[in-house]
């Protein structure tokens, strides 16, 4: 009898082991990324107004790889994480000066089907996520000529030691983020906070947002209002306004291209109002066209002579992308930009540039 009982228990144990995967939470880890590079001609690329031909980053997407995962905890709750690196395809180097392995993102959190997602770590700000994923026609491009309006906020697009919430109710999507400054005796110093609220109604989607960063007690603020209208599933028009105020002195330097002259001073209160308009059109299944125009009016900005003054910069970009497969595409782009006043400090040579590039992108 004991032998029969032992055999019965052994069989039950074997069955439990055999079917154990269905009794425990489901989990997954995904390796993903993309590789993208261009060969580009740029006019007036140095102080002698020489042209440059070089290999560099993609027009819209820097090369990256990452790991993302989720574990189902039951009841609509799951654990999520993401680790995302950015690198230079043409050199193999990390695409930052501080040797951060996961420059773009490194976070862990909890996601609820009912209540939204709460994450902790190094994360992209709500402003960057919404502009890069939805509202900017060039998805916050990589060339200076089609991303200069974002340069003042460039150092603040990703935040360390941050907690972020994302949730959606009907057509309303809300994201809010707080970054801990970590300074003893001061809760606010080197901290950040920001939020976006977007709402979709039929073919129209609109977004408003605010972000404030503290740098050693000095503030950088940005406000954005953006919209997208889909005339058809393949044709969209995008437009928006960005307003920034910088008391940190970083915006003047961050606006400059490589090779631009060194500034004699920086502004303690630079203000930029930027406007953009663009369109994306999926002409055929493999062919997509994008057109974008940007305009920035700077006030109280650093000038070449060391004074503070105003300036205007504007640019236009055309991009054609052709898919060779679901994961591979080739593209060509041409852009033109011109500035005056304070923006003369941002050009290595003459106050205008033309860029022409071809590129190849593969996703995995």
UniProtKB/TrEMBL annotation:
This is Outer membrane porin protein. Residues 12-341 form the Porin domain. Keywords: Cell outer membrane, Ion transport, Membrane, Porin, Signal, Transmembrane, Transmembrane beta strand, Transport. SUPFAM superfamilies: Porins. The lineage of its organism: Bacteria, Pseudomonadati, Pseudomonadota, Betaproteobacteria, Burkholderiales. PANTHER family: MAJOR OUTER MEMBRANE PROTEIN P.IA, PROTEIN YDDL-RELATED. It comes from Paraburkholderia aspalathi. Pfam families: Porin_4 (PF13609). The keyword Membrane applies. Residues 1-25 form the signal peptide. It is found in: Cell outer membrane. Homotrimer.
